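Q&A log
Question type: sequence-to-structure
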Amino acid sequence: MSVRTDLRAKLDSGQQIVAPGAYDPISARLVQSLGFDTIYTGGYMSGAHLAVTEPLMTMTEQLTVAEKVVKSVPLPVICDADAGYGEPVHAMHTVRSFEAAGVAGIHIEDQFFPKRASYHAGLEHVIPMDEFLQKIRYALKARTDPDFMIIGRTDAFTAVEGDMDEAIRRGNGLKDLGVDMVMPRGVREREDLDTFRKGVPGVPLLVIAGADDITVQEYQDLGYQCVIYATSPIIAAVDGYRRIYTSLRDTGHIGIKAPQVQAMRAEVEALISLPEYQQVEAETTEKDFQDRAHH
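Response status: OK
Response body:
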């Protein structure tokens, strides 16, 4: 069973899908080691780790990040595909490119393209609904693997041109087209989450978590089957770097005692398969070297 087929089966069975974010192979390996079975690679985290904002990142750059994550773990990866990187023809190319890269599914949104950096400050702008649905219609036509998921994302709730009614209208439009999931970006409060769920019934919903004090179980109770963590990995990484390097700057020491450093290093080495490689060398090249030394 392929990772796409496995993810499709979970979605179809109603099982909740929890996808922690990962933007590089080591973070993906960590997610896997903790027992999670799905990974999310978002535009915010990819852009931030390249020290640019998502609207300045190209499809090629996001695809490169996704490919590295896909190759590093035997898990389905859901990826942010921006606004399809352009018009319907670009959305078709986007679907084909991410599908060929081994990604399990992508979400495409209704913001203008190129996206504006101001959307991070709550100044989203969305294209007319008919243009958006046309783009998604061609995206759906472009896939060759029926298990490759295409998720329709609407930013209308918080957009300058929108509100909850418009978000619900677009959510139902996406459902009618046959997307695999609907993703209402910016719908964060419990009451709003409940309103959207009731307004867009009969289709799996995906929600961005990690910025609000809502648990996975609470999201499930609210009717959101897929929960992704879009900013968590990059803010955790920056916080970790800051802690040790602030200590280094202020005290001349990273602030972690030697035994703990060794334990942490051993954890990293396990994630990058170093013990396995050392075992292979012990059975081959090192064994040959020792045999020659004894003769």
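Response note: The first strand starts at residue 17 and ends at 19.
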